[in-house]
Amino acid sequence: MTLTFILPVGHRLRDLVVVLLSLLAAVCFGMAAVLQFQASTASATELNLRFSLLWRLLANPRFGLGAVFDIVGGGAQFFALKYGSVPQVLPILASGFVLAVLFEHFLARRPIGVGDVVALFVSCGSLITFLVLSPPASGRTIFITPSIVIGALGVVIGLLTVTLLRPLLAGHGRVQAMLGAILLGIVSIFEREVGIIWTQFGALRTLEHWELWILLVVGALALLVVQSAFQQQSLARVLPLVAVGEPIAAITISTLALQTPLFRAGPSALASIVALVVEILALIYLAQSEVRVDSELHDGK
User: Tens of pLDDT along 151-202?
Assistant: First the structure.
């Protein structure tokens, strides 16, 4: 009797800890996005898509504080996923970008429409649905040839973005955000691979593997592109594209490289497609948020 009573209590306590850790991660990631957005918008636009922007940001206290929030959020996410399931953690974790947009509007004392708030939550829900229904990752296996192709793709996209394509991308924050999301998706793939290598060989041996250095190079390029996107347009326009695009890009690129199905078989495939369509519609609605607010303010005068 005592054991059967204690076990449910233990599970409830663990679930509570998982929820609290997930909330902490979501809040930390949201705060990091707001602080880094503020630091980027305070930097000169002439630095857009230039490596000198990163040097300027590293000297900005808000950017540094945002990095601290990112680290704390990453730790909370790690332990939440360690002790809880993906369906438990993901809905709370995905809400981070919603919190960030709402908090940034509050700090800037800028109005946000009810429709925009609804679109944020719809976008969050669609993302959760797509991720939960996606096929699981391929265990602890690393496929060398696809990894080389994906790594090369990340380096090429990143370098082209900050060199040859820089003049064409000036002023196009949403395009920069989408490119940043693709790069972050590739970073996510290599984070998993480096984690596997670390577990198998230890920290020092990990330094010998090329996957770590691809992770660092593409990660730096992704950081530059995302922060440059923050310079160009509002957080409500840019952050949802990055937050939603990163996991979708990671899943799509890895499944294409491994030639595995993007969707589960059966009814789940239809639900995933519907979630993607709804996600796109919500992002299009959010992309017009400033246009609607400006129009409403103008009409109010």
Answer: 999 999 999 999 999 999 988 988 999 999 999 989 888 888 888 888 888 8
pLDDT at 7: 44
Cα–Cα–Cα angle for 205, 73, 277, nearest 5°?
100
SS3 234: coil
Nearest one of 76, 66, 56 to 30, comparing CA atoms: 66
Q: What is the pTM of this model?
A: 0.83
Q: How many residues does the chain have?
A: 301
What is the distance between the alpha carbons of residues 253 and 264, in angstroms, rounded to a whole number?
Answer: 16
The structure tokens 């970008």 sit at 97
DSSP states of 199-224 = HHH-HHHHTTSHHHHHHHHHHHHHHH
Cα distances (angstroms) measured from residue 167 to each of 45, 158, 162:
13, 14, 9
Q: What is the pLDDT of residue 2?
A: 43
DSSP 261: -
Q: Do 53 and 255 form a contact (C-beta atoms < 8 A)?
A: no
Position of tokens 């009573």? 5
